[in-house]
Amino acid sequence: MAQDPGAAESAEPTRPLGDGAWLGLRRVEPDAQCWQLTVVPRLCGRTGNLHGGCSLATAATAIEAATGRPLTWATAQYVGRATVGETVTYTVQIDSAGNRTSQARAVATVGDRLVANFGGAFGQRPGGTVRTWGTPPVVPRPEDCPPYALGVEPEGSFHRTVDLRVAAQDADAGTVSFWVRMPDGMHQTAAGLAMLGDYVPAGFRLVLQETEKPASSLDNTVRVVALEAAEWLLLDVRLGAVGGGAAHGDLRAWSPSGRLLGLASQTFAFNI
């Protein structure tokens, strides 16, 4: 699999690269920076379209493969939809390849139709200071927390595959905490963190008691700090604002040991 020119000078990544198997990602040609996936129900949200977090995870995994470097941060701008049965093509372009970091982007299309644009940085600098700020919320254990009520979510959809439990909520502060785990341990991967970053709307629905309202992602950004093997992750969702048909919020993903694993932010269309 081709790598960018700077990858050979870099140390082996300390975080594993995603292989795209759970997503169904496949490379089109050995020498082309082009990947595809066929949209199946478990990659879709409640509207039956490709889930934004799954699409971001797919793009990040494709760019990891193209650069040979692990995800540092990635962002998505969603401009179209892909439905079950359609094939989405992710075309990667490496814009800059340094000794430790690659800047790259990807375009997702269905035929001639644009679905999303992605960009990000990939690579790590071994050694140096490691420090994070903040602490995870204090919440009950996952087994003591009720499941998140999915409502109209179709059977077999992405959210039906994820075990999401409501650990705490404070409507006045605009905060919600979820315990979450994914099949095949996907929550322990960078791709999994990209998918879970799309749970900001779940926090809005819960706080605003608008569980049946549709939400359409406009953008999504994930920043990976570390990966840790754990049965559960704790998502600390913080609502920012809602108005003009859009909602804005962010979250932090924590391990049960209290380690900060990732940060995400999102804006989505949300009419109330």
Structure description:
- The protein is built from 4 helices and 12 strands, in the order E-E-H-E-E-E-E-H-E-E-H-H-E-E-E-E.
- It folds into 2 domains: 116 residues, Acyl-CoA thioesterase, double hotdog domain (Porin); 127 residues, Acyl-CoA thioesterase, double hotdog domain (Porin), CATH 2.40.160.210.
- Helix 1 runs antiparallel to helix 3.
- The protein is globular and about 50 Å long.
- With 272 residues, it is mostly beta strands.
- A hairpin with a 2-residue loop joins strand 5 and strand 6.
- Helices cover 13% and strands 36% of the residues.
- The chain has a 12-stranded antiparallel β-sheet.
- The N and C termini lie far apart (47 Å).
Layout: helices, strands, pairs:
Elements: E1 26-27, E2 34-38, H1 52-67, E3 71-78, E4 87-97, E5 102-110, E6 113-122, H2 158-161, E7 163-170, E8 175-181, H3 190-196, H4 200-208, E9 216-224, E10 233-243, E11 246-254, E12 260-269
Antiparallel strand pairs: 1-2, 2-4, 3-6, 3-9, 4-5, 5-6, 7-8, 8-10, 9-12, 10-11, 11-12
Helix pairs in contact: 1-3
Quick recap of the structure?
The protein is mainly beta and 272 residues long.
What portion of residues is helical?
Answer: 10-25%
How would a textbook summarize the main sheet? Answer: 12 strands, antiparallel
With helices defined by DSSP (H or I, 4 residues minimum), what is the helix count?
Answer: 4
- Cα(first) to Cα(last) distance is 47 Å
Oligomer: single chain
Computed CA radius of gyration, to the nearest angstrom: 18 Å
Structural class: mainly beta
CATH fold-type name of the largest domain: Porin
* Residues in β-strands, percent: 35-45%
Q: Any low-confidence stretches, pLDDT <50, length ≥5?
A: 1-12
What is the string of helix and strand elements? EEHEEEEHEEHHEEEE
**Silhouette:** globular
In the CATH hierarchy, what is the superfamily of the largest domain?
Acyl-CoA thioesterase, double hotdog domain
Question: Would you report the number of β strands?
Answer: 12
The largest sheet has its strands arranged as: 1-2-4-5-6-3-9-12-11-10-8-7
